[in-house]
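Notes from the 1:1 (GR / supervisor)

We went over the backlog. Supervisor wanted to see one worked example end to end before approving the batch request, so GR pasted a single chain during the call. The sequence is below; no edits were made to it. Supervisor asked that the structure be written out right there so they could see what the output format looks like.
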Amino acid sequence: MDSREFKTTIEQIPVPKEKVFSAISKGINKEENKGKAKKKKVLVGAATAAALLGITVSSGFVNPTMNKVLANTPLIGGIFQEFNDSTGVQLAHQDAVTELNQSLTENGVTVKLTSAYFDGSVVSVTGFVDEDVEKGGNENGEVSFDLNFEHYKGDSDPWLRGKSNNIKKVENGYNFQWKMDYPYKTFKENSTLPITIHNINGIKGEWKFDIPIQQEKNLTFVINQEQGYPKDGVKIHIKEILTAKASSSLTYETVQKYKGDYIYLKAVDNKGKVYTLGNETTLEESKHEDGYHSTQRREMPKLDSGITSLTFYPTLSAADPKVQQLLDSKTFTMKSTRFNVGLQVNNVTQKDGKLVLDYQLTGLPENMIKGKLETINHNLQYFIWLVDKDYLTRIDPENPWPPKNHGIPFNKVKMIDKATAHFQSTFDLNGEERIENFKLENTMMLVDFSSLVPAKDLKPFTVEIPVENE
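Structure output shown during the call:
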């Protein structure tokens, strides 16, 4: 989840936003594979916060010829209850979870895989790692796995993009669950999923497992219905819904005039049940004359039997290229390239290892100033960057982050006057994120104005379910 999806999700979930922001600020967005992954935007980790607030994933996994298919076992069902995995509980009751008994010991640490399921679009694997993992470098009670699937290496592994990790302390060790979004457009039958753990808590080894998987035949509802929003430069094409034992998945295509726009969907059936969509898996991306095409698959709760239609409620979170301004003047104005919002810098002060920007936001709607200025106040901590102008081209567009020792992506914000949207941002020039040989005339200020533009609810539309869901 990037900043656009975070913004949309936070606006959709009826919870106290300040608690979410506090959780994020305290480190809920730590990378699981420490020391391996690149730094990501601070709000990427908000996917974890959103999951804690109720966005879940579901699935199922069966191979009766190679593994013992579980009966209604309290052990496995209990593990899913521990991790609040309602789909796993349902599948355990349906005898649709595969029991595993694969165990390996490397450098004194034993890992045992205990169960797996594959239902619709998500794969789950549960296991146990013994207490010798505590000899590693992590804090007490913390367990992190550096692993890959299907012999991929590092961050290029598509299984890692939608992966979540749950850990629970038990006697003599830790139970864990990995849940992965199935990354491919088509499903393989009777395949094997290789798993390689490279280190756990910094303890190196090669724990290798081969998990046999079989996707049972699912019911597919072909929709093929398109809804356009010409004024917003957006089209949504609902393609199909796949329904498995305990979950469903929605495949749809979006066409956007502006690159980076994000569309969030919620669905409600004709009986009033709300279907919240889980993580997205990008199946195809391309650019055509009419815009940027993206085909996505998202997990959703299983469709209720007998429903005849779904109404989709889209929300558009618009993107805007970062605007740049060299800090060679005390006062200047910056404006969004797409929206009627801007920033008037009143003063730039450098003193005692700090850089202080005094500025006002311009063009904000009146209702935003009254109701959402606290959210903007939070976003300003992360969406104003200072970057060495000679290193701008080294920012990776796929994983945007200032180059080490040549950028400062954080600041402390102080609201001076709410009525006039007057703020101060203070940058620590000697902090962990810094610019070597800092000089104002060599520093570029980057502002992401999309953080100031609220997500927009688009007109809902209804699709018919072509056959009865049984």
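Supervisor's comment: The first helix runs from residue 3 to 12.
Batch request approved.
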